Amino acid sequence: MAEVINMPRLSDTMEEGTVAKWLKKVGDKVEEGDILAEIETDKATMEFESFHEGTLLHIGIQEGDGAPVDSLLAIIGEDGEDITGLLAGGTQPTAETATPAAPEEKSEEAAPVAPPAASAEIPEGVEIVKMPRLSDTMEEGTVASWLKKVGDTVEEGDILAEIETDKATMEFESFYAGTLLHIGIQEGESAPVDEVLAVIGPAGTDVNAVLSAPVGGTSAAESAPKAESAPADTPKAQETTAPAVPSQNGQRILASPLAKKIAVEKGINLADVTGSGDHGRIIKRDVENYQPSQAPKTEAAPVETAAAAPIVPISLPVGEESVEEVKNSTMRKVIAKRLGESKFSAPHYYLTIEVDMDDAKASRAQINDLPDTKVSFNDMVLKACAMALKKHPQVNTTWNGDSTIYKHHIHMGVAVAVDEGLVVPVLKFADQLSLTQIGAAVKDLAGRARTKKIKPDEMEGSTFTVSNLGMFGILEFTSIINQPNSAILSVGAIVDKPLVKNGEIVAGSTMKVTLACDHRTVDGATGAQFLQTLRAYLENPVTMLA
Fold first, then answer.
1. In this predicted model, what pLDDT tens digit does every residue of 428-459 receive, in sequence order?
2. pLDDT-derived band of residue 107, with 50, 70 and 90 as boundaries?
3. Which of 56, 196, 281, 455 could join 254 in a cystine, given CB atoms 3.0 to 4.6 angstroms apart?
4. Tell me: the pLDDT tens digits for 280-316?
5. Helices and strands counted in the chain (H then E)
């Protein structure tokens, strides 16, 4: 009997998942324990294994598509088993109830709902390609460029088009082979998910019959209202509004998302750039290496008067105004939600101290002279924080409404910037680790966080967080508390400056750190005492080695 596989909940906060890659295809044999797919959650990309064996009969969520937890992911059963009933779901009743609902006197309107039997079925070998859901938050997509045109032969795996989602511009490949018979959404056009994107099938197929056939209770023609207003022989391209980025010859410019971003930042008109990528696509290096030609300035015609001096032409700046609206990714939405909840629910206050880092610099140099040893200043800060938390347990707490939870373990969260936003890997039992162990663990966690190989449980359970922007030259800043923590430490850059020591002005190095505290759990005096202890450890690193 066929088994329905639903989108799994792979983390405690996961509400939706995206299929990053299928490792099996329809028709493949599946053994219990085989890896079916790689699934992206809100935290990491994880392998999902099968708990059933049989033949993969159906894939419900294509690569790049996102869907809520418990959505139909796949069906596994016996080869040739009828799964029509499992696939029909709630769509078939809609089609069945649509016909009797149409009154007799409105027969003209009812005609599309009850098409003739001859056109009711899609011919064998013809596939209707829908606008895919390429991200878990995507509701509509825009066709940035078509890499195939009507009449072209399409092989399975060929890139059909570039589609702009709410997260990025992604290449969309074909899962079918045949001839591209119809393009339903032209370049520059946007359409909801599941709108007819294209039709692929044998050459010579009657496309009108395919589009009029009911699909899931409504015909593809009905789901594309723009097509109804145009004559059958009018190319869909004529309905398209102005292309997103016209070039000098009126054709749409193919450009990668990164190239577009750099062009906007540099004020470069992509119409002036020559692309070196496939199909003349403009890529990053084309924009970075672009040298604008020196256009001759237009001289203003002198005004001839009897006594007036010639008017000196004024060179005014010439440019093109442009804006870009990019929809937020799932990770960005989660970051915004959680930090907003923290900022608006926890009464933050901030304490800043300046730490003498001369001894820390000397100690680090000596430690790093040892073979196979590498310790950063951030590792020293993490170690000092962990030891200070042992002496000030009030800072290592969580507000719980009617009670305060004291954490007797110390798990240090380390804020790491990634392309999509910010993640916080957790260094478990940091107070029990040496400086070199902390350095190795942070390097491993941060590296896997940036490559999306970190596990969800490695980003959970922090009791205190450190955010360091010193490597970017930031001298001082404040952070929003990473709840359910009660505090977060913001670490600035080490700066060389004149210092007064023993009544004399000498050269030295200092670093500013700012502690953000939740006033519900950490009073000002408690936060200040924590910073005093932290300073003592950093200014006397030998005490951290005891």
1. 999 999 999 999 999 999 999 888 788 888 98
2. very low
3. 281
4. 778 788 888 888 764 444 444 444 445 556 677 777 8
5. 12, 28
Tokens of 485: 């923590």
Q: State the architecture of 3-88 in CATH terms.
A: Beta Barrel (2.40)
Nearest-angstrom CA–CA distance, 407 and 409:
5
3-state secondary structure of 534: helix
The three-state secondary structure class of 501 is strand
CATH class of segment(s) 330-544:
alpha beta
Domain boundaries, the chain: 3-88, 123-239, 330-544
From 82, 457, 496, 523, the catalytic residue: 523
**What's this model's pTM, rounded to 2 decimal places?**
0.47
Which of 353, 454, 356, 451 lies closest to 413, judged by CA? 454
Distance CA 175, CA 182 (A): 16
The answer to whether the 123-239 and 330-544 domains have the same CATH topology is: no
The topology under which CATH files domain 123-239 is OB fold (Dihydrolipoamide Acetyltransferase, E2P) (2.40.50)
Active site residue 359: no
Task: For residue 408, indicate whether it is catalytic.
Answer: no
In this structure, how many other beta carbons lie within 10 angstroms of the beta carbon of residue 492? 22
Contact indicator for 297, 313 with CB cutoff of 8 Å? yes
Task: Tell me if 202 sits within 8 A of 179, measured CB to CB.
Answer: yes
